[in-house]
Amino acid sequence: MKFVTDRNDACELLNEVRAAEILGLSIRTLQAWRAHGTGPCFVRAGRAVRYRRSDLGSWIEANTIAPRQRPSQTSPSQT
User: Fold this and answer.
1) Is-contact 30 19, C-beta < 8 A?
2) Residue 34 vs residue 69, higher pLDDT
């Protein structure tokens, strides 16, 4: 998945509303994660909280879990 198209997009600062929309989460979830020191990296400028688009993409990649492959459903041969 290509999340960032160019350098300018990567550095774009997004407010928590836009970040929550991109991640498909509620604003309250992002707020709770910040309070607990989890979730994507963020930038604090005074009271304003911003998320770099590239940090959201990195967080998505770091939290992507590939499905496990199941063992073959073949039964042992009988001799």
Assistant:
1) yes
2) 34
